[in-house]
Design a protein that fits this description.
Blueprint lengths: L3 H20 L3 E7 L17 H9 L1 E3 L1 E3 L5 H10 L26 H7 L3 E4 L18 E3 L2 H4 L1 E3 L1 E2 L9 E7 L8 H7 L19 H30 L6 E7 L14 H4 L3 E4 L13 E3 H11 L23 E5 L9 E5 L3 E6 L11 H6 L1 H11 L5 H4 L8 E5 L17 H17 L14 H11 L1 H8 L6 H13 L4
Parallel strand pairs: 1-8, 1-9, 3-11, 4-7, 4-8, 5-6
Antiparallel strand pairs: 2-10, 9-10, 12-13, 13-14, 14-15
Helix pairs in contact: 3-9, 6-7, 14-16
Amino acid sequence: MINQKKIISLLLFFLSTQLLAQQNPPNIIWVMLEDVSLDTESYGMKGVKTPVMNGLAEEGNQFYNCFGTASICSTNRSAMIIGTHQLKTNTMHHRSNRDYDLIDPYKPFTYWLRKAGYTTILGHPKVQAQGKKTDFNFDYKPIGDWDKDKGVYDRLGTFENDGQPFFQQITLHVTHRGGWWNRVRNESKHPVHPDSVDLPSYYADDPTIRLDWAKYLDQMEHADDELGLIVQELKDKGLYDNTVIIVIGDNGRCNVRGKGYLFDPALRIPLIVKWHKGFEKEMNEQAVISCTDITATILDLAGVKVPEYMTGQSFISDNFDREHVFSYRGLWDEVMESSYAVSDKQFRYIKNEMPEQPYDMQQAYLEFYRPAVHVMRRLKEEGKLDAFQESFFKAKPSEELYDVINDPEEKTNLAGNPEYKKVLKRMRKLDASYRKEMKSTSDTYDPVIADAVDILKYVKENHPKAYQKMLDGVEIGFGKYGKLYRKHQSKGNL
């Protein structure tokens, strides 16, 4: 005989837990590492130790096919804060259109979180630069009311256990190229040894390049330490169990074939999620995910309906059905590009509309920050690069097609291979369809005037010894010489 009292008791318990969940929506912390690829220990990167990220991945999920819709910081961040592909919102050119309002009806997703009762917080005082980077390509203020003064977040600072659900975005700035890399390495108790790393085969195996790679991994370890401080604070304040922690990269690593390109090291970004207590959905860690899907998922976790204008989908939804990610590379400082990519689990298609722009575009800003390129230019002149390494210094084809499962380093362009004719045709159709779907209703184009070109010229003319060091693979410091250049200008030297 059915025990009715027991059934009623279980039903009441279920209803009470559901009501409690509605009354206590999860807190959400979005931790964004700058300029990183799948370079944590948990993803199998050799030579690096990232115990905090490893632990979050073990407790939650680590996803392997998350791609950016762009490979440059401000464009990808613009897509993520709106939850919509940057082409659709005309935010696709780096640090451009910043005096113009977002096209209607688009809004930062924090607007909808605030409507749902969330406090939105930017940064954290325990991490480098207080983790408060925003970098969006439209007119906004970091802090304020969106309707009144275009403010994206409520406040700066840390989280509190005050009964108010919160969303917090924290940027771990240390992984971005900068003058602090040597300091971080020097202060590390266990700096990564250059001989312990595995270089991708598109790098020349040179001591300077190995050291540069080791320094990058030092920054990954430092970022993991900073993340540990945040995790510990959550635990100390009794907030850890009911907090979702999302760890991603804003774009791929800043190096050869990385940031600024549409290859795998530029587009594929880490995505680790530690869920809140009670979240028991089985997740497919091999699912294809767009960076804008993370935005939609945050709203879903908060119990907020995803706006129809968003191109992102919640990947915790039963209706999640993404098969491809569409990406674009446009303006970056003085270098204009127009390249599109379609990525799925196996293939990547790239359409280069400006093949006259070489891979090695000698962009002024990057001259300060890519020692590997300087070394490889010299080795190329000495005839010491293999064919794959040397391809970086040749002209781009108009079309590229790669099998990223069987050729993860994208060595072999299959666009001209008749055996892949059907795949190429399918990817071309997807590219054309996405271009039509993501077309913006605005053609405003107000590009930023970058000063990196003038700074590089100043270094060449006024600091030839420093410039030679740069050519030898030494990071002489963009910030340092930027200050010297501006001081030089202020004295009337034009």
